Amino acid sequence: MKYVLAIDQGTTSSRAIVFDNKGEIVASAQQEFKQIYPTPGWVEHSTEDLLGSVVAVVGEALVRAGITAENLAAIGITNQRETTIVWDKGTGAPVYNAIVWQCRRTADYCEKLKKEGFAEKIYNKTGLVPDAYFSATKIKWILDNVDGARERAERGELAFGTVDTYLLWQLSKGKIFATDYTNASRTMLFNIHTLKWDKELLRLFDIPESMLPEVFPSSHYYGETDALLFGRPVPVCGVVGDQQAALFGQLCTKRGDVKNTYGTGCFLLMNTGNKAVKSQNGLVTTLGATAGDKPCYVLEGSVFVGGAVVQWLRDELKMISSAGESERLAREVEDNGGVYVVPAFTGLGAPYWDGSARGLITGITRGTTRAHIVRAALEGVAYEVSDIVEAMQCDAGIKLSRLAVDGGASANDFLMQFQSDILNCEVFRPKIAETTALGAAYLAGLKAGYWKDEEELKGLSSQKCGFTPHMGEAERIRLLSGWQKAVSRTQG
Ligand code: ADP
């Protein structure tokens, strides 16, 4: 019997999941690791924790599945994106902790880049806006601040990688130095049109080209893991950044397909096929995974506060005792009673881009209850998502026909039904919620011949839960205009 193993190296934990030929989960294991906050706004991970937790969960998942590495057809790796590691090519030893995507230490430098007029050039090449989030300025920070790092880099002794690259290197004992298109497209050094590292940007950020890994398709034979690690060598045939993994795991492989992940924040990705769409609304353009040799283009937008508003109701307002209770309360009232919650806790993102905005509850009357506020908070998440979908449709000139969903808060049936109503389109929730790991497994399994083609994958994932819109047009327009009014009052 053969299986495919997905390694999901995330921001707070590492997971390994064993999938069978039907795309069903056979066993999984998970390990959390420490978040390091050296000073406010800075976030790091220990590279030993990242690697150690990955090796541990792979071993545990195999034991739980009652199999050995012998039974693995392939491994697929998916990972937290943008997080930056620099290590010595000779010893494999990192020169600094992993600088996590959330880390803001280079925010001032990014502001300076914008002031100096580099934003357009960077956007035209990479599809990204200059931000501390992406890898480029984190690499520069390491070279500028770690003793001797720049000299060693210039002598060709240091390697840079996102987490996928670091894992590939370590799991192959230095034999594989590679990344995939989706991860490369998040570094702010990769030209998404030529599909090459961009020499001009490397000069701008003062990063030697010798540090960079080779870039391959997401579904590709990368090489084998070292024999000593899991008992025998296993081929790695899939590498993909987490959001693009979820897009592929949802089988959003056609132009116009959209998925949204409802986690702490929300991540929306629209497949725009072989066309890189320029956004007029501040969305980023990035590369998506395909089963073939060429990546697809993707429009990406995020909502800063998604499921986090439910945590806030629970932990700060103490209106609910569990996230699940929000659904029961929302259903206790017939409608929002005129109440809107705009969860702009850290400002408004796309398409408003107002960092000075703050959260607001509007329309409170003497009759407003806790249930109205909880309902309005859930509805607020759906409106935020709807705003981004609107921006994507506008940018791409594509009308959304259905939304594929995953992530913790997608378990909320009330939220999913309301989302469907407000978007006036179908919302599909797959039976397997682990779409990120599934996407990495699919990409690896396709390359290894474990699955034949996408058609076969479509046949596997038939069990889904669908929500279809029931709301009338007049009601939708009335609610959306109420939301717009509430948003306008949070601004400035
Ligand atoms: P992350 O990967 O960002 O940690 P998850 O996908 O695990 O996020 O989702 C966790 C989020 O989902 C939390 O913010 C939580 O409040 C929210 N959540 C979980 N269950 C529900 C639910 N039934 N209704 C609404 N929100 C929920």
Question: Could you please describe the fold and organization of this structure?
Answer:
- It is built from 17 helices and 23 strands.
- It is of the alpha+beta class and 492 residues long.
- The strands form seven sheets. The protein has a seven-stranded mixed β-sheet with strand order 17-18-16-15-21-22-23. It has a six-stranded mixed β-sheet with strand order 3-2-1-5-14-13, sandwiched between helices.
- Helix 10 (242-249) packs across helix 15, helix 12 crosses helix 13 (370-396) and helix 13 (370-396) crosses helix 14.
- The longest helix is centred in the C-terminal third of the chain and has 27 residues, at 370-396.
- The chain is globular and about 70 Å long.
- It starts with a strand and ends with a helix.
- The mean pLDDT is 95.
- It binds adenosine-5'-diphosphate.
Secondary structure layout plus pairing:
Layout: E1 3-9, E2 13-19, E3 25-32, E4 44-45, H1 47-65, E5 72-79, E6 85-88, E7 98-99, H2 107-115, H3 119-126, H4 135-145, H5 149-154, E8 158-161, H6 163-171, E9 178-180, H7 181-184, E10 190-191, E11 196-197, H8 199-205, E12 214-216, E13 219-224, H9 227-230, E14 235-241, H10 242-249, E15 258-262, E16 266-271, E17 284-288, E18 296-303, H11 308-315, H12 325-332, E19 340-342, E20 360-362, H13 370-396, E21 402-406, H14 413-423, E22 426-430, H15 435-447, H16 454-460, E23 464-467, H17 473-490
Parallel strand pairs: 1-5, 5-14, 9-12, 15-21, 21-22
Antiparallel strand pairs: 1-2, 2-3, 4-7, 6-8, 10-11, 13-14, 15-16, 16-18, 17-18, 19-20, 22-23
